[in-house]
Design goal:
Elements: E1 7-11, E2 23-30, H1 39-46, H2 49-59, E3 71-77, E4 80-88, H3 102-119, E5 122-125, H4 137-147, E6 155-159
Parallel strand pairs: 1-6, 2-4, 2-5, 5-6
Antiparallel strand pairs: 3-4
Helix pairs in contact: 3-4
Length: 161
């Protein structure tokens, strides 16, 4: 376990989550409809559905909830779902700062917690918001603790070797 946070930190790949029972893999997407680089590529190497669902969600955004803070949960196997969380504005760091939006990640994690509870699932993720989104883990981790751990949802965070 991590330093008393209730989050389990492991080495490995969040697209091959550890343990038994239903699982939700949570990751952060941008609000531009671009399924770009980073963890999403690992997702797409394993399953086509999350990317296809995300692109459809963006394409039909005039009629749905697509936007910062929204979540789309896509089933990829009998006991496995991928949660596409929209938690970054745009795609690259520039004059307006980094793309990560902590409030959006916070909102999205609340939705993921509710879905995980319904599914009686554990939640698995890379260090969301900290790769290309440019965020800081010390700001993301407390959101995970409050939203997921605080709701008694087991959480495992994966660090690649």
């Amino acid at each position: 376990m991590g330093m008393g946070t209730g989050i389990a930190y492991v080495r490995g790949d969040a697209t091959t989550p550890l343990g038994k029972g239903p699982k939700v893999i949570a990751h952060v997407c941008n609000d531009l409809g671009g399924w770009g680089k980073g963890f999403v590529l690992a997702v797409s190497r394993r399953w086509g559905e999350p990317e296809a669902a995300y692109r459809r969600w963006h394409r039909e955004r005039a009629k749905n909830d697509f936007g910062l803070g929204a979540v789309q949960v896509v089933q990829v196997d009998r006991l496995l779902w991928v949660a596409n969380m929209i938690g970054q504005h745009g795609m690259r760091t520039g004059s307006k700062g980094v793309p990560v939006r902590y409030e959006a990640i916070d909102t999205a994690l609340g939705t993921v917690a509710a879905r995980a509870a319904e599914l009686e699932a554990s939640v698995h993720m890379p260090r969301i918001g900290c790769g290309l989104a440019g965020g800081k883990w010390e700001r993301v981790e407390p959101l995970i603790v409050a939203r997921l751990v605080g709701a008694d949802v087991p959480v495992t965070v994966y660090d690649h070797d």
